[in-house]
Amino acid sequence: MAFYGVASNLVNYLTTQLHEETVASVRNVNNWSGAVWITPILGAYIADTYLGRYWTFTVSSLIYAMGMILLTMAVSFKFMKPACTNGVCNKASPSQIAFFYSALYIIAIGAGGTKPNISTFGADQFDDYNPQEKKLKVSFFNWWMFSSFVGALFATLCLVYIQENLGWGLGYGIPAVGLLLSLFIFYLGTPIYRHKVRKTKSPARELFQVLIAAFNNRKLQLPNSPSELQEFDLQYYIQTGKRQVHHTPVLRCLDKAAIKDGSNNADTSNPSSSSCTVTQVEGVKLVFGMMLIWLVTLIPSTIWAQINTLFVKQGTTLDRNLGPNFQIPAASLGSFVTFSMLLSVPMYDRFFVPFMRKKTGNPRGITLLQRLGIGFAIQVIAIAIAYAVEVRRMHVIRMHHVVGPKEIVPMSIFWLLPQYVLLGIADVFNAIGLLEFFYDQSPEDMQSLGTTFFTSGIGVGNFLNSFLVTMVAKITGTGGGKSWIGNNLNDSHLDYYYGFLLVISALNLGVFLWASSRYVYKKETLQALNEDCIRIDGKTMDTSPLGLQV
To answer: Domain extents for the chain?
Structure first.
């Protein structure tokens, strides 16, 4: 609620209260959103290497709350906003701009520690060795995002209206108080939380260790069988509580890091060997595989960035009247993204997954990458509809000779509804799917850092959108031509920009299908210390004859 209470209508605050130009406001919103989603890389590293998820979240949430309080002050006190005289408003002073953006970026710093850790900390509460809890964990991310959507719905429906009609101070103050209340509730649960013990002192260091070892061994010959590579025996993983990751036939050059050094050929329980293990090498392979998938999520994240920027500005040009005395805030149309999510998540979790589970035998119904592919395909359809609606808007503008930047196009804002609804449905597949994919496929001790593949993809997508908007406006506005994205959207070619997004989205979908066909899923052995069995990829193997001690 706090995040979307700020993000959903920020572009309107910048243009109407700080009097920024359209392109500048879109760029600044994208840059801030990008920072909110990119700083989790640092927060996840601190959690995985030093503080753990609970304490990283605790410290960061207090920074987040401080930023919300400062932002509420910035929009509440008159001396912190530009003055207006007889309808003519001054531009914001450097000190006013500095205070406002400082508050925004303090929120971004706080988000760096909260976003990657709170969802993974929630997932840590489920015991992978307990079949019932493991089954519940499959649904966790669906309902995690469902609760987030409820907060987003309140923000886009209620807070946006309050901001534009009752005051920005109240509109930002409510989520600030709500944030403090939610943190209080979170801290009440401290005595009962499960804390996942870090089994590796520096997970990131192991990545570099594998790369260095593979480079040093680059001239050595790989053995014919993967079983000849360095790996600890099963007893070592049972005693340490770590998970063994099985060999995969991809990126074979990295396997050279696990070539035995000769002195440890006979001792497969010796953790002091100079060679890396197959499990360590597979962890690096997982990271490279996730990087490939991450790259093809950038364009979908750029499409998502339109919801809080150009879609909102586009909506301000349309007829927003609902009856004689009520006008819909343009940013409130974003609530239909949330509505469609809220309706789709239970349907997906309670009907689609059980139905597909019977067909495929997969506990998730479909694979994680199939889920992403469906979401990306729906997103392409959504941006195609956005393009068609904008072509229609431009046609109405020509028919009614609308030219002024503040003139209302005689076309209902509800023409934008299908693109919002489809993007909401798409997010049930790709947003939740991405969060679960990067958590599930991350190396065991890097799951907070792995989750930042999800957040950083959104962040880079916002930066990419900022870059595209700036460059497109600059290039198309030169030489006396009509800019695709100008201050006056009634005299621009926003339809061309949406057409451009449609083309790159369709191409990106093709690249995703290629990348997903190359991806190899993680294969772990889960050792249950209180049972005479080992589970590999959800299948159970009896190991009692091996004489393992329980």
So the answer is: 1-198, 203-281, 288-549
